[in-house]
Amino acid sequence: MIVNPQPKTLHVFGSLNMDLVCRTPRLPQPGETILGTDFKTLPGGKGANQAVAAARLGAAVAMVGRVGKDAFGQQLLNGLQNAGVDASGVMVDAGAPTGVAAIAVDDSGHNTIVVVSGANGRVDDQDVDRLVARLRPGDSLLLQFEVPLPAVIAAANAAQAQGVTVIVDPAPVRGDLPAEFFKAIDILTPNQIEASQLTGMSITDIPTATAAACRLVQRGVAIAVVKLGSQGAVVATEDHSFHQSALPVNAIDTVAAGDAFNGGLAVALAEGMDLEEAVQFASAVAAASVMVSGAQGSMPERSQVAALLIGLKHP
């Protein structure tokens, strides 16, 4: 009897938030009050966003994190399950409310975000233990910094020890990362601001972004991907670097575009795409996401990404 190998799983260890989204013609200046045009509550959190992004693309995805014992928490769990994510690893924590993110989005698609961690801030070794029990060699793990750093570091170290690919989105960026942490990371995916803060370098264009990516590799990261929004992304490994142009689309809302990119990158690599093909695929996932408002609601289906890639090859 032929036994099919167990499919590889993309694990996400991170945050779940309810996004409180205000639309406004422009972003307010400090101390300024302006009138908005719309308000919505939408499921978000960088961890949950990346889980939904990967699941919508057809991957087997499991999430570990925490929500509060409240209406927002139940809505977030329902959203994960409806997207096809295994949410059995998400703890309902009666000691804190579900995390929220207050987001303002202007007419050009730019945004500002304030996150209140809630239950996300209580993620600890218990959650790491639940994650580790699920990991298998060859799986992938997506991490972000919206849950406490000690738990993130413990998760990365445990995953690396088990032969799991570790992909870290260093957002919100931290200035207290221990040097050894970089050596536990297979792929680090900062945006332009985060890469600048991690390296101390001024990033103004593709060459300076490439230099920053190379510096992150020198710290021990196997692959550094610096996301540059409309300028695409630059990628560095120990022996080469390259630039991936952004796909030309009409951006409506850039919320969670980076999460879409990470989910797409993880899926592409898990499916065996080479690095350049995987980054192009991830760029198409991000491009599809910015054409739709919201965080998890903007994560595209596989067919939408395929259409963008076909258009790129046959304009």
Query: Quick one: biggest sheet?
Result: 9 strands, mixed
Radius of gyration, CA atoms, in whole angstroms? 18 Å
Count helical runs: 10
Regions with pLDDT < 50 over 5+ consecutive residues? none
Helix content: 25-40%
Coarse shape: globular
CATH architectural category: 3-Layer(aba) Sandwich
- Name the CATH homologous superfamily: Ribokinase
When the domains are counted, the total is 1
Structural class: alpha/beta
CATH top level label: Alpha Beta
What is the β-strand count?
13
Strand content: 15-25%
For the termini, the CA-CA separation is 48 Å
Overall pLDDT metric: 93
List the helices and strands in order: EEEHEHEEEHEHEHEHHEEEHHH
The name CATH uses for the topology is UDP-N-acetylmuramoyl-L-alanine:D-glutamate ligase
Task: Give, in spatial order, the strands making up the sheet with the most strands.
Answer: 5-4-1-8-9-10-11-12-13
Secondary-structure blueprint:
Layout: E1 10-13, E2 17-23, E3 38-44, H1 46-56, E4 61-68, H2 71-82, E5 86-93, E6 99-105, E7 111-116, H3 125-132, E8 140-144, H4 149-161, E9 165-169, H5 179-182, E10 187-188, H6 192-199, H7 206-218, E11 223-227, E12 233-236, E13 241-244, H8 257-270, H9 275-289, H10 302-313
Parallel strand pairs: 1-4, 1-8, 2-6, 4-5, 8-9, 9-10, 10-11
Antiparallel strand pairs: 2-3, 6-7, 11-12, 12-13
Helix pairs in contact: 1-8, 3-4, 6-7, 8-9, 9-10
